[in-house]
């Protein structure tokens, strides 16, 4: 396909011909090609205080090690949720963003598991 | 010493579905073939309910004991992306990886420091954490042994997903107790012929005189014998060899009875096949078209035919479609209910290397095809296609139980509710 990128001019040679860098590729910035990166759509706004709104796209990383205070995507009672991770007395808990739910203890035996750590957020139409 | 590994994803298609839907974790899951026909992947819960590989979904679906089964149409865009992820994780653990099939990869584990069992266990854990797909790993001095080790790792829960066949004594113990049909490349027919000469276990196969094996299974058999003895004959190939042919075939969602519907379908196959051709930068010089009725419903009338034509090497959609249409006209017969058709391209060679004197492709053609591919890349497959490929396409394969394409389409990604 013919694409003009600021380099191959027809009359005067472009002084920028050797300096073309192309547009910014956000999937590269967000490192979406990494096998551990998954985009996840948020439903609900209980984490509005942390800047996460309904419809936002989270960048979830299944290889990243989440620590206390981090946001995580987790599975609990068969659904995926966005929650804050908190350590308490040697155990991990999933905390609601607006205290609308009681904390849930992370326990793979009860199918409450951390799926991925949230490493970024994208908003298409603010 | 060379060490090959084989890592295999457990119920790969089902595991891909489970990765993004936590509610499926303990439920029986079945993925169906094209057209929602037969079971092609089952979780262990589904196997325990007695669902067999290849079982037609519509025959068993209504059974009360299967009411909890989660059926899915095959979602190949999802499986392809998950396969890529598995492959990339593996590259962090082994210097060379051969993607042997969508759910199995050979590994070069030669000379890696540390305990190999520990390494393979770490590798399994990493694949499962990152892709959510459980796997089994087997390894040994040859590819055939690695493949067998993988089978043992998968088949015997007490192995906990790992099987090391680097040791000859260990190998011989398994060889004495395993049927020869478990060897990579020994199919049912070959196994039956071996059985006729008294060869039932792998040990019997390995210890048989090579001349005898050559008579039954030709050079392939002799090579397998050597591989199973620990002499490596098959190398790791990191990329697929150049194709000799390329096909696009489908079963229809409903029988096709008119020439116009069939023309649409065959045009669609020619379009897709030429796209694949261009993606691999190849030209084809031989085109075949086939059509056939349902083999299992011969009482409705049985007809199958194929026609082929040699042409000037090309990857041009419009040229290949025109040839496919001509071929279809020569084999089309009214009055049948067609169930399947396809377009096959052969005599492939790198694009532009074998032009004849008379058919020099114009620059415009190349540009047109490039643009068409770019548009389809951006707006989805089939966004720009010849009108003859149809608008409604009601014969398209059924995919009534398709899950979202969780990783390849931004409108279908996984959702998480804000807690």
From TrEMBL, chain A:
This is SOS (Error prone) mutagenesis protein UmuD. Residues 8-118 form the Peptidase S24/S26A/S26B/S26C domain. It comes from Acetobacter orientalis. InterPro entries: LexA-like (IPR039418), LexA/Signal_pep-like_sf (IPR036286), Peptidase_S24_S26A/B/C (IPR015927).
TrEMBL record, chain B:
This is DNA-directed DNA polymerase. It catalyses: DNA(n) + a 2'-deoxyribonucleoside 5'-triphosphate = DNA(n+1) + diphosphate. It is an enzyme of class 2 (transferase). Pfam families: DUF4113, IMS, IMS_C, IMS_HHH. Poorly processive, error-prone DNA polymerase involved in untargeted mutagenesis. Copies undamaged DNA at stalled replication forks, which arise in vivo from mismatched or misaligned primer ends. These misaligned primers can be extended by PolIV. Exhibits no 3'-5' exonuclease (proofreading) activity. May be involved in translesional synthesis, in conjunction with the beta clamp from PolIII. InterPro entries: DNA/RNA_pol_sf, DNA_pol_Y-fam_little_finger, DNA_polymerase-Y, DUF4113, PolY_HhH_motif, Rev_trsase/Diguanyl_cyclase, UmuC. Transmembrane segments: none annotated.
């Amino acid at each position: 396909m013919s694409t003009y990128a600021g380099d191959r001019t027809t009359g005067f040679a472009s002084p920028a011909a050797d300096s073309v860098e192309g547009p910014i590729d956000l999937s590269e910035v967000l490192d979406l090609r990494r096998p551990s990166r998954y985009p996840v759509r948020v439903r609900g706004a209980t984490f509005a205080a942390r800047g996460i709104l309904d419809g936002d796209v989270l960048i979830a990383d299944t290889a990243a090690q989440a620590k206390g205070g981090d946001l995580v995507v987790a599975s609990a009672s068969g659904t995926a949720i966005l929650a804050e991770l908190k350590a308490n007395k040697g155990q991990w808990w999933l905390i609601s963003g607006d205290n609308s739910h009681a904390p849930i203890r992370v326990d793979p035996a009860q199918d409450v598991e951390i799926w991925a750590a949230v490493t970024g957020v994208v908003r298409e139409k603010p | 010493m060379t060490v090959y590994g084989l890592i295999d994803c457990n119920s790969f298609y089902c595991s891909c579905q489970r990765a993004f839907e936590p509610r499926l974790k303990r439920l029986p899951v079945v993925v169906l073939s094209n057209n929602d026909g037969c079971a092609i992947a089952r979780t262990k819960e589904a196997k325990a309910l007695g669902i067999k590989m290849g079982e037609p979904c519509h025959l068993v679906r209504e059974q009360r004991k299967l009411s909890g089964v989660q059926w899915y149409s095959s979602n190949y865009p999802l499986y392809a992306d998950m396969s890529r992820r598995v492959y990339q994780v593996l590259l962090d653990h082994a210097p060379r990886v051969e993607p042997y099939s969508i759910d199995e990869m050979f590994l070069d584990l030669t000379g890696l420091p540390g305990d190999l069992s520990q390494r393979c266990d770490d590798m399994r854990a990493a694949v499962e954490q990152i892709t959510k797909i459980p796997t089994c790993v087997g390894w040994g001095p040859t590819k055939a042994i690695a493949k067998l080790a993988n089978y043992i790792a998968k088949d015997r829960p007490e192995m906990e997903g790992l099987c090391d066949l680097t040791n000859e004594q260990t190998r011989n113990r398994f060889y004495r107790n395993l049927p020869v049909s478990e060897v990579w490349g020994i199919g049912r027919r070959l196994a039956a012929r071996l059985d006729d000469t008294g060869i039932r276990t792998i040990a019997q196969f390995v210890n048989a005189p090579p001349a005898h094996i050559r008579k039954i299974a030709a050079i392939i058999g002799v090579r397998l014998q050597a591989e199973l003895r620990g002499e490596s004959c098959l190398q790791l190939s990191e990329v697929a060899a150049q194709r000799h042919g390329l096909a696009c075939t489908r079963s229809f969602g409903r029988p096709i009875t008119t020439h116009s519907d069939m023309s649409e379908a065959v045009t669609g196959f020619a379009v897709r096949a030429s796209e694949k051709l261009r993606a691999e930068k190849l030209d084809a010089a031989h085109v075949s078209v086939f059509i056939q009725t349902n083999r299992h419903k011969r009482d409705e009338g049985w007809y199958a035919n194929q026609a082929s034509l040699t042409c000037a090497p090309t990857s041009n959609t419009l040229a290949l479609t025109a040839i496919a249409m001509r071929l279809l006209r020569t084999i089309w017969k009214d009055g049948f209910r067609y169930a399947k058709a396809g377009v096959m391209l052969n005599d492939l060679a790198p694009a532009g290397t074998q032009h004849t004197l008379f058919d020099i492709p114009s620059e415009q053609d190349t540009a047109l095809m490039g643009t068409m591919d770019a548009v389809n890349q951006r707006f989805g497959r089939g966004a720009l296609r010849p009108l003859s490929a149809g608008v409604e396409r009601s014969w398209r394969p059924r995919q009534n139980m398709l899950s979202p394409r969780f990783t390849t389409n931004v409108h279908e990604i996984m959702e998480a509710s804000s807690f």
